[in-house]
């Protein structure tokens, strides 16, 4: 199996890149003249970062990233007054190159995705590059827009390409992340940030953290439309409000009950199930933390649906610090669980499988018979959290 590494080039690897630049851009494309040093480098190399993809320890491709605030390689060809709107907080991708023997591999996709993640993590909002005119269709598929500005350099014609990061992110989320998720296990991602950006949803109340004025002026709440993950979409029962109002003074000055005995008994009666099978808590996050910290440890391996409620990934990654895989739900399948594929992946003997049913946020439901069939075919030591 091929070893694939994505990393920042060190000084030794940069020296190799200068030689590959000469091979590609002087000998192959005739963009630059040949020189006795058989290397190509320029002033941007003093301020740029090279991201490389290595296959079996050999450089397969590279790209240069220029940060905002200084010179760009583009400045050699275009005056900044021509497209003034593209320069604010813009990162430049240059020399997007895949060595000939590695063309047709996943190298180009990995390089492009690495650029996106690098710019995202460094707060960039725009990406610009120049791409060969014969490859414009490829660049447009990544979300870049052809500004229809030709640049001639040697025997090569380039086109100016530009996009806002948020627009490329939409393309990445629907195409590239799904493709990469299938080969993640084979990639040694050595950049200082995750390959797939976290989609976790943390606790509610974030709008208050970002709008502290509401704490001293609650009337401001009327001017805010909240969209926190834990906020209820519908108002509570009027009967509940009436009971709370009638007993408000008592409720404010007394402590809550130390257990949920009475409500557990009520739920058991209404649902016609043993009260021993009822566990109540202060919301789902309370029960997730209470249970997972007792059921799992850092050596555990868990399977999650993706997308699903992000609190699960949060506790596994940041609290328990254990490994977990994501079973990707495809948009083409309306985000439904493919039962056959799901059953197949469960042969990996996970310590726990998390199934939100109906799923959040898709709303899709796995029927009871399918669930029973999945559980019966899985290792008896696997815990199902449904």
What does this protein look like?
- With 386 residues, the protein is of the alpha/beta class.
- It folds into three domains: 4-189, 3-Layer(aba) Sandwich (Aminopeptidase); 199-254, no CATH class; 296-385, Type I PLP-dependent aspartate aminotransferase-like (Major domain) (Aspartate Aminotransferase, domain 2), CATH 3.40.640.10.
- The chain is built from 13 helices and twelve strands.
- An eight-stranded mixed β-sheet has the order 6-7-5-4-3-2-1-8, sandwiched between helices.
- Strand 6 and strand 7 (156-164) form a beta hairpin.
- Helix 2 (107-121) crosses helix 4 and helix 10 crosses helix 11.
- The model has no long low-confidence stretch (mean pLDDT 87).
Quick gist of this model?
This protein is α/β, with parallel strands linked by helices. The chain has helices spanning 11-28, 107-121, 136-141, 165-181, 206-209, 213-216, 238-246, 248-253, 261-271, 284-295, 311-320, 339-345, 368-377; strands at 4-8, 49-55, 58-66, 90-98, 126-132, 145-153, 156-164, 187-189, 301-306, 323-328, 352-354, 383-385.
SSE blueprint:
Blueprint (H helix, E strand, L loop, with lengths): L3 E5 L2 H18 L20 E7 L2 E9 L23 E9 L8 H15 L4 E7 L3 H6 L3 E9 L2 E9 H17 L5 E3 L16 H4 L3 H4 L21 H9 L1 H6 L7 H11 L12 H12 L5 E6 L4 H10 L2 E6 L10 H7 L6 E3 L13 H10 L5 E3 L1
Parallel strand pairs: 1-8, 4-5, 9-10, 9-11, 11-12
Antiparallel strand pairs: 1-2, 2-3, 3-4, 5-7, 6-7
Helix pairs in contact: 2-4, 10-11
